[in-house]
Amino acid sequence: MIKCIDIADVKIGMYVHDLNCDWTSHPFFRKRFQIKSDDEIAKIIEAGIHEIYIDTEKGLDVSHARSVDEVNASLQQQMIEAVTSKPAPVITLSFAEELGRANRIKNQAHALVKTVMQDVRLGRVVELEQVEPMIESITESVLSNSGALLTLLRIKNKDDYTFLHSVSVGTLMIAFCRSVGLDRETIHLAGLGGILHDTGKALVPDEILNKPGRLTEEEFDIIRRHPRDGFDILSRTEGISEIPLDITLHHHERIDGSGYPHNLKGDTISTLAKMAAIVDVYDAITADRCYHKGMAPTDALRKIFEWSKYHFDPKLVQAFMRCVGIYPVGTLVLLESGKLGVVIEQHDSNLLTPKIKVMFSSRSNTYLQPEIIDLSRPLGFGGGDRIVRHEAPEKWGINPLRFM
């Protein structure tokens, strides 16, 4: 059985099933292993990990610990209670209407970040006049329908991950800031910070940045230098403001003091840096890498909600979930009727009742005539169904974008 235990209960002889943190936050070669020494326990604690999941069939048990199913059920209920009472962001264009522009922006922003990183490697300064127009384009797309660009950005080529991750973080920061009501200038600067937050990775050797496996401790130390390197690089940029510098330097800080580079705690971390930390981890753990299978967005939100006990600001995590939705646009979901559909739009006041385009029957294993269901409406009025869970598109051979 898989159980969640407090770090105080960890003992030699236990089998770690999941270190319960984002993969960028721990220095272990493997996610799953038998604990064989006190040094390994100390390393887990030093990584800022407060709870882990153990496999009791492969190692020692803790009788009073909760099972993973009990933990997930509790988290799901807490998430629902935390986010369903607040409105979702307003959209002005449908997903289909915004999709063409969003696709162009994705490609242009990807090329821009790649150029910026290449320039930095050559010792050139970052030129804001190249980047700022792209921030405005992303903002206009997000204001029209944030789901279009965010859905496209979840699709990343493993070789171009670093560049598209930066575009994703910039876009998510813009959407997040907009959803909590920040002013347009702050939104712009936060988006700029997001798209430039990993500038310091331009100085990380490719063989470390794209290594197809866990990093050694020495390599991990090199990676951990990128916030400071990025800050130093951007500090030489004419006209750069405090907000993008702060996001670049502090997006790996954690509210319990376990982050880097300064081990800041609580309110010594700015609100925008706390927001960037959430956004950065969300995009990282939902992306496929050569050594890491990305989580479904709904699962990633649940993990971030779980980690908010220690690593993230709980109120900001709840605000982020309201921003993207418990079932983000583009998510494939199974309905109580047995139909499969893709989320195309959030409801303005209840994130559990989005609009779904159904197109497949899980019971007959056949495609259906596509139909839009508004889960906020009763049976006979375009609704009358309920989400059971999200589904992996590859399990059914369905490309959600085809139906959006």
What descriptors fit this protein?
404 residues, alpha+beta, 5-stranded antiparallel β-sheet, 14 helices, 45% helix, DUF3391, HD_GYP_dom, HD/PDEase_dom
Structure, described:
- It holds the Pfam family DUF3391.
- The protein has 404 residues and is α+β, with helices and mostly antiparallel strands.
- The protein is built from 14 helices and ten strands.
- The protein has a five-stranded antiparallel beta sheet. A five-stranded antiparallel beta sheet has the order 9-8-7-6-10, with no helix packed on it.
- A hairpin with a 4-residue loop joins strand 8 and strand 9.
- It is globular and about 60 Å long.
- It starts with a strand and ends in an 8-residue tail after the last helix.
- What is the helix/strand order? EEEHEEHHHHHHHHHHHHEEEEEH
Rg from alpha-carbon coordinates? 21 Å
Major beta sheet, strand line-up: 3-2-4-1-5
Structural class: alpha+beta
Question: Beta-sheet strand percentage?
Answer: 5-15%
Mean pLDDT: 91
- Main pleated sheet: 5 strands, antiparallel
Q: What is the helix fraction of residues, given as a range?
A: 40-55%
